């Protein structure tokens, strides 16, 4: 074995990225580390002492991509703590908004992050020259998903309309009919995207590692929103209010973020986990896409997460069309949330695009937040990325260093860790 | 045909000065609404849309499509004194950010605008107001340097909004 030292370092404490460190030589691998050096965000401390009415707008800033998921987990947590029951209409409208974010995020992940790898480009920008139609298709899908979020959440990012107990403003039926037409028009586009990805799927690395997968489970449903906590290692589910017994957070010296483990040393969350637990309940078009890629049974190649996201895009659009039909048949009624705060504690949980997301809150009688615990999908995946590295590196260590580096980066990209999403600033020099 | 102006505030208001773009967007939107209230549309032939896009830099692509002019406000590391506001256009700067492309969560406005130019969806006029931060630690209040200059920022950006908009 030749001496190899691979260090992919992006250390900036404020906009922290992950670092990949591999040292190998003299017939053995000395060090393999997935390091996470980002600065603590302190959101849990920031919301202490704040009113239940303010929490949603604060926690939506945790992530610029998953802000709807954080808002919904927060509101569900508040409602669980204060015994607030929402109408069937609110539940459906929230799920519809939740789906819009899944589509936004998945399309971006497939088109902007993974397609360049499959096409040998450094980023999406050079693809404009070589694969203009694909870039336009991805932008069109993302634009429609953005408009969909705008309609339900009041704006594309950091929702305005979500309130404990309901919506501050419900969409007009005419707008929902337009959305139905827009989503119907996306189906041929998704089929085109599926064909393009199918032609490139052989570029995804072949790598298998037996893994525990954790996601929401709900009877007869490919769920993103309701249910209990399920695992590929367990037949019984765990109630949401016992999520701490699932995540078992611990400190890793190579990370400023907490890591998680359940039945094994690590577990994975996200599209692959949802598929492995719930694929029997995918919509017909989603089943068709999964079949085209040969996806069946338990999938243990983490690089397939992107393909499963495509399957989920088909499921989301088809299921949303059915939801819209149901809402329009019943007729959309105006709603005015009327909630009185009370003391209590509760857990809110949704499947964010990158996996299961937990929010726990406690409130006093005035509705002031006295405790918070937020566990995001990326923190649950960090340990699994490390374990993937430890298994993958010995299998590929004799390859060219650039190829090893690409495989490791592609592996991280397949998880799309949320490690720098709460900041944005420019860093420029004048020319 | 591209028409109208969009003003976009970027950043996270929970990280003090990092959120200056969002703070200013809110102030400018409120001021603009107050000034235009009761005026006929002929007073402002070019409509102005105000958007808080937070840290979602990819969404910029859709927000600027079809616009004649895009104005951005963002916290910017420019090697200037804290609180300094600089107005610049795309040909006056280059990014020092290295995007490792490990995650969609990496954001760089200049990268997104480069993509917009390549797909011919970038407005013909793009102006960026960068403000050098003093403090980007967790918290909601702006630093003393930015607080002291806030009214001056509003005035400078309003001048830009009104330029060619009367």
Explain what you see.
The complex is a heterodimer of chains A (431) and B (166). Chain A is built from 13 helices and 12 strands. Chain A is of the alpha+beta class. A 3-stranded antiparallel beta sheet of chain A has the order 1-2-3. A 3-stranded antiparallel beta sheet of chain A has the order 6-7-8, with helices on one face. A 3-stranded antiparallel beta sheet of chain A has the order 9-10-11. In chain A, strand 4 and strand 5 form a beta hairpin. With 166 residues, chain B is α/β, with parallel strands linked by helices. Chain B has a single domain (5-162), classed as Rossmann fold (3-Layer(aba) Sandwich), CATH 3.40.50.1450. Strand 12 (426-430) of chain A pairs antiparallel with strand 5 (93-95) of chain B, so a sheet runs across the interface.
């Amino acid at each position: 074995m030749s001496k190899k030292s691979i260090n992919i370092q992006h250390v900036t404490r404020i906009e922290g990225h992950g670092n990949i460190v591999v040292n190998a030589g003299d017939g053995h691998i000395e060090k393999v580390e997935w390091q996470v050096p980002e600065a603590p965000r302190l959101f849990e401390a920031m919301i202490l002492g704040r009113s239940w009415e303010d929490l949603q707008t604060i926690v939506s800033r945790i992530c610029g991509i998953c802000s709807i998921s954080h808002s919904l987990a927060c509101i569900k947590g508040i409602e669980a703590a204060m015994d607030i029951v929402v109408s069937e209409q609110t539940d459906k409208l929230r799920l519809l908004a939740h789906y819009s974010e899944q589509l936004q995020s998945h399309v971006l992940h497939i088109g902007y992050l993974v397609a360049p790898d499959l096409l040998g480009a450094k980023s999406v920008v050079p693809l404009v020259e070589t694969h203009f139609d694909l870039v336009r298709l991805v932008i069109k899908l993302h634009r429609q998903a953005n408009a969909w979020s705008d309609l339900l959440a009041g704006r594309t990012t950091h929702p305005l309309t979500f309130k404990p107990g309901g919506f501050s403003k419900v969409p007009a039926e005419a707008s929902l009919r337009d959305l139905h037409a827009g989503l119907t028009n996306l189906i041929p586009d998704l089929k085109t995207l599926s064909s393009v990805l199918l032609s490139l799927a052989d570029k995804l690395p072949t790598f298998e590692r037996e893994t525990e997968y954790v996601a929401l489970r709900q009877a007869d449903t490919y769920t993103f929103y309701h249910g209990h906590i399920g695992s590929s290692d367990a037949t019984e589910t765990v109630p949401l209010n016992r999520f701490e017994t699932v995540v078992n957070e611990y400190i890793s010296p190579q990370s400023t973020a907490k890591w998680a483990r359940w039945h094994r040393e690590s577990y994975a969350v996200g599209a692959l986990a949802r598929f492995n637990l719930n694929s029997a309940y995918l919509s017909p078009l989603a089943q068709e896409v999964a079949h085209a890629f040969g996806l069946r049974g338990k999938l243990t190649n983490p690089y397939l997460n992107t393909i499963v996201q495509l399957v989920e895009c088909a499921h989301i659009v088809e299921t949303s069309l059915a939801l819209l039909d149901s809402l329009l048949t019943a007729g959309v009624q105006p709603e005015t949330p009327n909630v009185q705060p009370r003391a209590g504690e509760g857990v809110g949980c949704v499947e964010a695009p990158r996996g299961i997301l937990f929010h726990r809150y406690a409130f006093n009688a005035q509705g002031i937040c006295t405790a918070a615990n937020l566990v995001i999908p990326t923190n649950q995946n960090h340990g699994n990325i490390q374990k993937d590295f430890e298994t993958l590196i010995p299998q590929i260590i004799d390859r060219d260093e650039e190829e090893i580096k690409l495989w490791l980066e592609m592996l991280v990209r397949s998880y799309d860790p949320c490690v720098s999403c709460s900041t944005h600033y420019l860093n420029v020099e004048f020319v | 045909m591209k028409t109208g102006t969009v003003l976009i505030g970027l950043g996270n208001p929970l990280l003090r000065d990092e959120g200056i773009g969002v703070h200013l967007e809110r102030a400018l939107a409120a001021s603009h609404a107050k000034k235009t209230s009761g005026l006929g549309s002929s007073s402002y032939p070019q409509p102005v849309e105000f958007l808080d896009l937070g840290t979602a830099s990819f969404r910029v692509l859709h927000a600027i499509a079809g616009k004649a002019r895009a104005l951005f406000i963002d916290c910017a590391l420019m090697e200037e004194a804290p609180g300094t506001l600089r107005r610049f256009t795309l040909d006056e700067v280059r990014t020092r950010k290295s995007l490792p492309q490990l995650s969609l969560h990496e954001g760089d406005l200049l990268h997104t605008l480069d993509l917009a130019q390549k797909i011919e969806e970038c407005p013909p006029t793009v102006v960026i107001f960068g403000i050098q931060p003093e403090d980007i630690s967790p918290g909601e209040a702006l630093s003393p340097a930015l607080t002291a200059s806030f009214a001056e920022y509003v005035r400078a950006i309003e001048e830009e909004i009104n330029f060619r908009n009367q």
